[in-house]
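Researcher: I need the complex structure. Ligand is NDP. Inputs:
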Amino acid sequence: MARCTFLGLGVMGYPMAGHLAGAGHDVVVWNRTAAKMEQWAAEHGGVSAPSVEAAVADADFVFACLGDDPDVRSVAEKAIPAMKPGAVLVDHTTASAELARELDQAARDAGIGFLDAPVSGGQAGAENGQLTIMCGGEADTFARAEPVMDAYAKASSLIGPAGAGQLCKMVNQICIAGIVQGLSEGLHFAKRSGLDPALVIGAISKGAAQSWQMENRWQTMVKDEFDFGFAIDWMRKDLRITLEEARRNGARLPVAALVDQFYADVQAMGGNRWDTSSLIARLERDL
Amino acid sequence: MARCTFLGLGVMGYPMAGHLAGAGHDVVVWNRTAAKMEQWAAEHGGVSAPSVEAAVADADFVFACLGDDPDVRSVAEKAIPAMKPGAVLVDHTTASAELARELDQAARDAGIGFLDAPVSGGQAGAENGQLTIMCGGEADTFARAEPVMDAYAKASSLIGPAGAGQLCKMVNQICIAGIVQGLSEGLHFAKRSGLDPALVIGAISKGAAQSWQMENRWQTMVKDEFDFGFAIDWMRKDLRITLEEARRNGARLPVAALVDQFYADVQAMGGNRWDTSSLIARLERDL
Amino acid sequence: MARCTFLGLGVMGYPMAGHLAGAGHDVVVWNRTAAKMEQWAAEHGGVSAPSVEAAVADADFVFACLGDDPDVRSVAEKAIPAMKPGAVLVDHTTASAELARELDQAARDAGIGFLDAPVSGGQAGAENGQLTIMCGGEADTFARAEPVMDAYAKASSLIGPAGAGQLCKMVNQICIAGIVQGLSEGLHFAKRSGLDPALVIGAISKGAAQSWQMENRWQTMVKDEFDFGFAIDWMRKDLRITLEEARRNGARLPVAALVDQFYADVQAMGGNRWDTSSLIARLERDL
Amino acid sequence: MARCTFLGLGVMGYPMAGHLAGAGHDVVVWNRTAAKMEQWAAEHGGVSAPSVEAAVADADFVFACLGDDPDVRSVAEKAIPAMKPGAVLVDHTTASAELARELDQAARDAGIGFLDAPVSGGQAGAENGQLTIMCGGEADTFARAEPVMDAYAKASSLIGPAGAGQLCKMVNQICIAGIVQGLSEGLHFAKRSGLDPALVIGAISKGAAQSWQMENRWQTMVKDEFDFGFAIDWMRKDLRITLEEARRNGARLPVAALVDQFYADVQAMGGNRWDTSSLIARLERDL
Ligand SMILES: NC(=O)C1=CN([C@@H]2O[C@H](COP(=O)(O)OP(=O)(O)OC[C@H]3O[C@@H](n4cnc5c(N)ncnc54)[C@H](OP(=O)(O)O)[C@@H]3O)[C@@H](O)[C@H]2O)C=CC1
Ligand SMILES: NC(=O)C1=CN([C@@H]2O[C@H](COP(=O)(O)OP(=O)(O)OC[C@H]3O[C@@H](n4cnc5c(N)ncnc54)[C@H](OP(=O)(O)O)[C@@H]3O)[C@@H](O)[C@H]2O)C=CC1
Ligand SMILES: NC(=O)C1=CN([C@@H]2O[C@H](COP(=O)(O)OP(=O)(O)OC[C@H]3O[C@@H](n4cnc5c(N)ncnc54)[C@H](OP(=O)(O)O)[C@@H]3O)[C@@H](O)[C@H]2O)C=CC1
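Model: Output:
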């Protein structure tokens, strides 16, 4: 069993840290807003720490799941110098590949290992311990961290060097942008045509139009229910990071760029916290 | 066993008619280009007819699988008056819902049944007898035709009144347009980022970015292979019909309309017969 | 002075026919809804005719300004056979190039001249006699018709053979689609940024961002006033014709196709009769 | 006459500084690459300075025209502390509004005035002294700087507080993105239709489709000539800054976002330095 620290007990981090404790690891937690770490400690019998530095000092593995680049940078600046040589820092935040490379270098300089390790699977995946983890970093660092991450992962994979985990997550979000917009237009067209969406989905959901989003979201989309899932504010952050990376690597993402603007339409409708499937609301609600 | 006629022995119709014969039905075929129907008759021991009228005269069920609206209209104008009262005409062509309604009316006037019954599953589905059939029409007409169509279908469903089969197929194509463009942008981004696409797909193909297209097309897309599958010329026909229908029903299809133009880019690259997954070629080839 | 007939006394045709009369031509008018032609005859002292055939029988020049392809086709089918050999038919409707070629052939067969001659300049241009006319047809036919059309034109030009006038009008509409959407996004951004639109337009309206639309529409756009001008229903008809033509000639029109869908958004807001500049309402109103 | 310093003698800054000297001001110049400032001093009889600090020490007005945010920030960090109290810093770089607000604050703290003052009019405007200048800042600072900027401006205007000049320039670029893409599609369609572009432009360039871009760029666009003008790399920088600002102010810019991706297509064709009108090359060259 390993000595683990978890930084950031949000929607994702809270249950992830819980699975580490449940798997028998020694877990120290830290969260900016103290109430959450106290609640966690009470619930899981773990230890909360008064500062990032205190939280990480004895850890073999430090996991973080925060918000955006600046959040990670500010926390990592405190964590890295305070970590033991030979320890490993794993960042589960969806952030930029550039930040990952910057943290990787800082970690090397400090004699510690680093993985960028964004996840997919959402809140449900975090709660059920069924996340998919996409990692960038050294093979031996990955080999050491993977068994620990198994506490909350159904699959982890090493995609390439530092930053590759983040880049892989960006591919994931690009694919989702196209799928969800296509599905939204399809369901909107079906409703406009007077078709019964259940019959339509029954007919098309086994073939070339099938997608995870179709199977898992069509019912709530048709019912105009979006009060759950992966929030548009997060999605737009991810698309922002992705479009910025595309400026560097030269990739052209016309539909991802357009869908990002359509998500801004949904934000203007008040949908900041709605699930990504709410793209359909742009089409259905303004009538 | 039923007396069946099949009109149009193209990539789809040829094997579909073959499955009817294989299931023990009496099959008469007709094809505009005579060579194909002679080949079919030789291969399947069926009968070819010299004209549409002759082909349909004794049939209980007449199936058609032709090209576009005008093709269906010209053939149906000959077939309907020549059919027996009480027979059923099933149109497997992907065509407009308006044509379906028009043919339904003409069939009613002639005392015969009609189903618009576009299929999905592609050439492979036609050859393996594993098509999905989306039908519009009367319930009792569907009930009579379904067991016969079972010769080449893995699933048939009645979506609604005349035209509903075509509308359902349009929903299918709308969804595909978004999915394939998203997947193309994702794989293009992955390559531009220097990632190994196999590792990326391994990591993301079980979650929220999953799609039939991802599972069945990523490898050929990455290898720039498009010489198979569902041709762009057909896809643009389907999107044209869909966008015209959207003008009538008021649906807004921004990404389907845009992807239709991107398919025109691929046509300009010489891709008229390439698979729909060739949207990625726009992004990869011009470098 | 010529013997002229005008078919179609709508928003455009009514004042155009009036200018013909004002210029001293003998004018016979016909309109499907009789009240309008009676009103016109009363106002201008001209003659209204009970049928298309009667209206055109003695004319040297027959002008039409109707709605869409089917309207023109149904009227022309009556007019062409009833016209005198050597007379000229000028169609001012914005319609397809294919229809123009079809009418040109029918006119040739009947021994009459034909011009497709869509106009720009809007209702104001028709009322002030300041239209721009884009013509397709034979040079000598154009030479004969131009002096007569001068009654309501500030400029007429022969662009090429039959259909070229319509194709030129399509170029016009494609350009407008991009300009108005760009201007809408620009003004929307200015308002969101808290800038005074008048100061912004003052600063940018002489340079590389200048357009007729900016000069003539920014004020009403900022005030959310669209109850005038060129109706979205007409614009969508024109874009439909244009996108269909692009399918034939292989042109790629991604932004025109997208803006056409945005116009559908405005129609869904109730904007069928609003001016084309109402694209900004999609951005401003849903907040 | 004023004591002026000009920082950054690029395509724009070099002739702008020249006009200051020509108007009789005392001009000190500084440029990162020394050769250019020596050339300038030789040509204009002005003085070059060995460092930013030395260049600005005695100036009443310091003008800068550099590349992007980080360039301005690094130069301003040296300039502001070295400037005389009461002097004015004018930044002609197209940069972010956030940077403008940050520099405005730093200038206030140092007791100097600040204007963000991006320009339009391009290289030709800089050379002819006919730029348009859009300013953000205090009215009295603007009142002091305007007469000096008159050396190279045909019009300067104060749009609002610090940042407003940059925001106004963003509106300009948003409008251009839509106009140029619309014009590209229009000319591409005209060529595909076999029309003579000169006749088309002759017919439509006085009406609702008119734009500065149409008047000034159609000929080079049709000839596929882009080796001049405002470079795509600069345009993408400007659109990046604009799209980032839109994330903050909530504006939706679907076509600007899409056109930005189309510019990336042109970059992938090798067009980094081509004029913004080269959007048409995407449509014309790949055939
Ligand atoms: N939610 C989801 O379904 C998924 C989310 N993700 C990604 O995971 C990450 C976390 O998401 P989620 O858990 O939903 O987010 P939450 O907003 O629920 O949690 C964010 C956590 O980060 C902490 N935090 C944020 N900024 C700072 C800072 N500057 N300094 C210190 N702590 C900070 C917050 O602390 P405090 O409690 O004090 O606010 C909180 O613990 C994001 O990058 C998201 O994109 C990835 C896949 C799915
Ligand atoms: N309005 C504008 O600003 C501009 C319009 N145009 C184009 O000019 C054309 C006319 O526009 P506008 O005048 O505004 O349209 P209106 O709707 O005002 O007028 C249409 C005219 O066509 C007649 N008409 C329509 N269909 C038929 C038919 N099937 N049989 C006989 N008559 C018919 C109508 O007759 P009835 O009175 O009986 O309905 C009416 O006289 C359109 O193609 C439009 O796109 C071009 C530039 C600008
Ligand atoms: N060109 C045009 O048509 C227009 C340009 N603009 C804007 O004006 C600005 C300048 O454009 P332009 O003159 O064409 O650009 P150039 O590339 O020709 O010149 C850029 C200038 O900035 C200097 N510079 C860049 N980075 C730094 C740095 N980090 N430290 C010090 N100096 C630096 C360069 O110095 P060095 O010589 O050492 O490289 C050079 O003098 C840009 O923001 C552009 O967007 C606005 C309207 C039109």
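Model: Summary of the prediction. Chain B has a mean pLDDT of 97.
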